[in-house]
């Protein structure tokens, strides 16, 4: 039914999308949100997204509560609360012998995510190239695209993820502005060795590139592997920004307290971007994380041993279910090839896994531009930052569904 007296609707101009729309994930949702939603819908056990399902140390939680009670509820200083700046500097010295000034060499951020975004926006101009290792943590690609940069990928190939020196050399050019490293690495669990860091350092120095080293799993390198900050590689302190976060170490991923440390001039450049993204955040939570960083060494050792045990549990279970699982050297995740089950597309398999077996995992191909280059097409990522009872239950479901006897009966 038309009403001729009603004026024709004004055609509003199409919303501006622009090149930035290109980096929005399909459907406006990341794979992690999508798979977590699928877990909730199907009642599947969620070994997809990497968040712990138990609270961190009581001392950390109590310090944040106390800070609220004590009135630490307004904007913190732009660089971060003094107590946290000092705790971060002391932590870098205590664990790694790195000299970090709490006055000039530290910036507290909204998780490692904002530290990464600010640093990439600070150092990447349109057309600049960024060397990244693939599979790559998902926010890196979005940040680089937003800065107008170009990714040059170095594949870490399943199942040993060794550094391919030829591919590394080929990824550098006169346009290289930045190298983006992650150790211990998500999702492969690789801990870069001192020799590998030295090789990367040589190229970074020759091309005068800044190195951003994402070390959010610094306390989760499993024995005998040891985490070594990239900044402790000879010649690298002056060109390296180290990023970490309290989320993974203290099981407080929802707090989003991260930080960046490095030479004063590089940190100042990151701070100049960060100040107009969020300025500052999480005053009382900063006190909580400061308390965490000051916990005795035994806390970190126990955490590391517990996570190593859970990873071994999951690797063993996946193996019994018929997956080709690789023991990680650190982090929160196990990668497992599903090719032995006769599946060649892990992305398709991941979508039916929740209903078929009652478990959620993430296809490793989502971390890749070219999944074949790193052998990730048939690989799934499982998180073990979950309670042992949850891991046990997930294994039971997977063994029942895919284990040898399940397949031969
Ligand atoms: C979890 C994670 C981050 C994000 O850390 P937040 O502190 O939660 O922002 C960054 N990098 C890697 C490799 C991660 O796994």
From TrEMBL:
Residue ranges, compositional bias (Low complexity): 1-16
InterPro entries documented for this protein: Aminotransferase_I/II_large (IPR004839), Kynurenine-oxoglutarate_AT (IPR051326), PyrdxlP-dep_Trfase (IPR015424), PyrdxlP-dep_Trfase_major (IPR015421), PyrdxlP-dep_Trfase_small (IPR015422)
Keyword Transferase part of the UniProt annotation: yes
Ranges that cross the membrane: none
Cofactor requirement: pyridoxal 5'-phosphate
Recorded coiled-coil stretches: none
Stated name of the protein: Aminotransferase
UniProt-listed SUPFAM superfamilies: PLP-dependent transferases
Residues in Aminotransferase class I/classII large domain copies: 45-398
Gene Ontology CC annotation, any one: cytoplasm
Family the entry assigns: Belongs to the class-I pyridoxal-phosphate-dependent aminotransferase family.
Region (Disordered): 1-25
Keyword line: Aminotransferase, Pyridoxal phosphate, Transferase
Molecular-function annotations in GO: kynurenine-oxoglutarate transaminase activity; pyridoxal phosphate binding
Organism: Dermacoccus nishinomiyaensis
Keyword Transferase included in the entry's annotation: yes
